[in-house]
Every structure is written in C-alpha cells, then in structure tokens.
C-alpha cells in the first residue's frame, strides 16, 4: 500500500483550562479518497482540521502531509492543502472575482484568469463575479468559500460542515461538486453531522467523540459489520406462541400475534440470508403470511449505536 497522503499519529490538544479537544488521535488518509469524519458538536472535528491546517498548535503528536512533517517542514505541504471553513471570514465589500483571485495569490501562484473563471463557472458563480460578497445568498457564500479554497489548486481539501445551514437541493448540488473534485484527483476530507452526506459520498468513514476516534473503516465494511436487518412479516392467522423451529430465530411476536418481527444480522452482515431461512421455516411449518417488509440499518443508526456504546463504557 502506498504512503498515506496524510498521516496523523498520537495527536492530542489540551486547551488552557484542561479541555482535551483531541485525545491521542491516529488517522491515515489515502490519496484520492473522500473521507467523512462524523461526530456530534464538540467532538473535536474542527480542532483536528485546524491542527492539520496550521490554525491550532497540537499539545503532542505528529502530523505528516505529503511526506512532510507539519511541525518542522510545513511550508512544503501547506500550499497543497485547502480549507473550506464553516464561517465566511473575508471582506464582505470585496467583489467575488477579486476575493477568489486574491486567495490564489496568497499562496504565491501567478494570476490565472482562465483558472479563476473555470472555478467560478463550476460553482455557478461566474454571473456573480462582479458582485460584492455581502449581496450573495447564504448558499452562494458557501460556494464562494469552496472557490477560495480551490483557487490555489490543492491536492488535499478539507470541508468543515460544507452544507450546514443550506437547503436540501443545494446540499445535493454540493455533493455533485465534491464528487467532481475527486474526479480531478483531489483528496477530500469532510466533517459533517449529516449522516446522509457521509452515506452518499464517502469511501471511508471515521467516527469521533470527545476527541477520540472510535472507529475508522470503509463505509460498506462498516455497515456490514455493524448493520442490522429488520423484517416484519404479516401473518395470515395470529399465533399465540412460536413453534420451536421458528423460535430458534431472533424473532418476536408483535401486534397481538399477527406480526412476526425479525431483528438480527448484527456483526455478520448475513441478516438477509437468515430472513430467507426464516421464510422457508414458516413455509415448512405451514404458517401462512401475507406480506414481508425488510430493511437494513442506516449509517445513522450505526453512528448512534457506536456513540451510545461508548457513553455506557465511559
């Protein structure tokens, strides 16, 4: 396996007063992937991004980006990293085009009108290029943040809650834009508390709580390991008790014996196969049914479950 584009080892940040925002974080990011860092407010997501981007000084630990130590050799790596923060921090009276062009020049790159136009057009901001930032809508201001971050053509892009406060349609548009970035070869790390955002776009998912990484895995693998299958089977005739062949499955009678509920597959990813076996057992036992409703647990349910387990353990 090739060297990770970002390698974080033992990263800890303790603020004055004793708040431990990051607690011995290890994280490796692969080139070209979209990585989603999930966690509730105050989990340490923004602090982690700030540490990598040079906005927060870690208490201990190491950060290597593109093979460079960010503590001693940050100049060689910082220009290859882009950041889209949560809040817009720029001159609200500045025109859109000038703001994006200035962001490029801040990194020592030569002016490139064609590149700035390409970025603004890709974000549907070209017709707003001469307008002052203060005149933009909330969604357009969010796009402007991305344009400013893309102006110096970063290889690694951080998006801190990129769709917070925007409507569903704009959020979907942002997802398409992030996918296009990946196609250009940009590695994307996004923090979010919108679970569907990670489910839609991410290749891998990391879950962080109270400054600690609880789990990192490929999205599909995470859902196979921790997902559950739930099936509700409507019975043609109510049952007062389950035959032994049926009771051997993780099932319960509900709604006065008229519904059979299966909940299983946790940790195995084989819930669907077990539901099929259950259906066969019902047929063998001559138990008629009129309908089956099967669903898989979502990433949100896995996220909540993991956080709940850690809370209990704490």
Descriptive account of the structure:
This protein has helices spanning 45-52, 74-78, 96-106, 113-122, 138-150, 168-183, 195-201, 219-226, 244-247, 271-284, 299-313, and strands at residues 6-14, 20-29, 34-38, 60-65, 68-69, 81-84, 156-160, 187-192, 204-209, 212-218, 229-235, 251-254, 259-264, 289-296. By secondary structure, the chain is an alpha/beta fold. The protein folds into 2 domains: 6-224, P-loop containing nucleotide triphosphate hydrolases (Rossmann fold), CATH 3.40.50.300; 228-296, Alpha-Beta Plaits, CATH 3.30.70. It has a 6-stranded mixed β-sheet, sandwiched between helices. Strands 2-1-4-5 form a 4-stranded antiparallel β-sheet. Strand 12 (251-254) and strand 13 form a beta hairpin. The chain starts with 5 loop residues before the first strand and ends with a helix.
**SSE string, helices as H and strands as E:** EEEHEEHEHHHEHEHEEHEHEEHEH
The CATH homologous superfamily of the largest domain is called: P-loop containing nucleotide triphosphate hydrolases
Helix content: 25-40%
- Number of DSSP helical runs: 11
Question: Structural class given helices, strands, pairing?
Answer: alpha/beta
Give the strand tally.
14
- The CATH topology name of the largest domain reads Rossmann fold
Residue runs with pLDDT of under 50 for 5 or more positions: none
Strand neighbour order, sheet with most strands? 6-7-8-3-9-10
How many structural units, i.e. domains? 2
């Amino acid at each position: 396996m090739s060297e990770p584009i970002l390698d974080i080892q033992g990263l800890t940040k303790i603020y004055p007063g004793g708040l431990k925002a990051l607690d011995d974080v290890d994280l490796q990011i692969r080139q070209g992937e979209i990585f989603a860092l999930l966690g509730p407010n105050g989990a340490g997501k923004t602090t982690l991004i700030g540490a990598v981007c040079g906005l927060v000084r870690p208490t201990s630990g190491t950060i290597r980006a593109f093979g460079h130590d960010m503590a001693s050799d940050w100049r060689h790596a910082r220009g290859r990293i882009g950041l889209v923060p949560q809040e817009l921090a720029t001159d609200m009276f500045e025109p859109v085009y000038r703001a994006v062009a200035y962001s490029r020049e801040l990194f020592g790159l030569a002016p490139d009108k064609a590149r700035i136009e390409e970025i603004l057009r890709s974000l549907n901001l070209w017709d707003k290029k001469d307008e002052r930032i203060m005149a933009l809508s909330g969604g357009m201001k969010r796009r402007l943040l991305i344009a400013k971050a893309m102006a110096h053509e970063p290889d690694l892009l951080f998006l801190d809650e990129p769709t917070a406060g925007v409507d569903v349609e704009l959020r979907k548009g942002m997802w398409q834009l992030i996918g296009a970035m990946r196609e250009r070869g940009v590695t994307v790390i996004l923090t979010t508390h919108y679970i569907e955002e990670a489910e839609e776009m991410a290749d891998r998912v990391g879950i962080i709580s109270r400054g600690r990484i609880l789990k990192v895995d490929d999205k599909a693998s995470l859902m196979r390991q921790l997902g559950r299958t739930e099936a509700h089977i409507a019975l043609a005739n109510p049952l007062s008790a389950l035959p032994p062949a049926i009771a051997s499955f993780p099932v319960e009678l509900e709604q006065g014996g008229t519904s059979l509920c299966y909940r299983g597959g946790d940790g195995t990813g084989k819930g669907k196969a077990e539901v099929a076996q259950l259906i066969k057992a019902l047929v063998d036992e001559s138990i008629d049914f009129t309908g089956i409703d099967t669903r898989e647990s979502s990433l949100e349910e896995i996220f909540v479950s993991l956080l709940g387990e850690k809370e209990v353990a704490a």
